[in-house]
Amino acid sequence: MIREVKRSIASGYLMLVVLAVAQLGTAYAVWSAARAISTPGLVASVLASLVVLICWAGLFMVHPNEARVLQLFGKYVGTCHEPGLRWANPFYAKASVSTRVRNFESSKLKVNDANGSPIEIAAVVVWKVFDTAEALFEVDDYVDFVKIQSESALRNLGTTYPYEPHDDSAGIALRSHPQEIAQALRDEIQDRLSQAGVTVIEARITHLAYAPEIANAMLRRQQASAIIAARKLIVHGAVGMVQLALEELDENGVVELDEERKAAMVSNLLVVLCSDESAQPVLNTGTLYSN
């Protein structure tokens, strides 16, 4: 595996002055040799002028948050990160690699979650190149590699976890644990991209929904679950209130009720407390034990 080697490259501003002076000097030498009709001098001057012209090719610009990967006849020799005008061996191939932070937003992918329900999921990945040598030489196209591996990791994440928990002990789910899911997604993408010299700064889900063909059914299930949970809470509170009422009646000696009348009282109170509609008062004109 090829690792990045940082190289300190000579400043191009000094070489710009040197090459300009050398170019003028060789041009004057060619003119002088031509006037003197000196064949050896003319040949030497022309060759020197060609060498200076070739040296001009060694100048290159490095922008902020950019690197230049240097190769000599196919061999990696180092990477220049220092911004500004630089000069290196004119025979170096100088490939530009951006080290800026980038965003990649995946398309909406349709996958089956851990429970087999079809869902739509999409994510955004924030990444940057940290090893320019690996990015250029270990993969064919590191930008496409990031896109393909990010979507592959997202698909795998969608099939690993359920869309939502069905009970309190269901564990991590896509909808109910966004922070844990984001961390799991980032870790999986980073594992896939580490060989490409890329670091993942952040990964988070931007779209999560049931597939259209089951969305209505899942909505009804969610509504039913919410109603059941609310009913459980109401019944639990009503039973506590009835129990408290019976205990207060017994402790204060307000009235003595046999088991049958207690059952009737409990039934009436539960109906009143748990009913969706307001209770209708009924005036009893007889005795407590009249039918």
Features:
single chain, 291 residues, alpha+beta, Tetrahydropterin Synthase, Chain A, 3 domains, four-stranded antiparallel beta sheet, three-stranded antiparallel beta sheet, 7 helices
CATH fold node name of the largest domain: Tetrahydropterin Synthase, Chain A
Unreliable parts? none
How many helices does DSSP assign?
A: 7
Radius of gyration: 39 Å
User: Considering DSSP H and I runs of 4 or more, what fraction of the residues is helical?
Assistant: 40-55%
Q: What is the number of domains?
A: 3
Report the sheet-strand fraction: 15-25%
Structural class: alpha+beta
Please give a quick description of this structure:
The protein has 291 residues and is an alpha+beta fold. The protein has helices at 12-36, 39-56, 132-137, 142-160, 178-193, 212-252, 259-274, and strands spanning 10-11, 59-62, 66-72, 75-80, 84-87, 92-98, 102-105, 109-112, 118-129, 198-210. The longest helix is centred in the last third of the chain and has 41 residues, at 212-252.
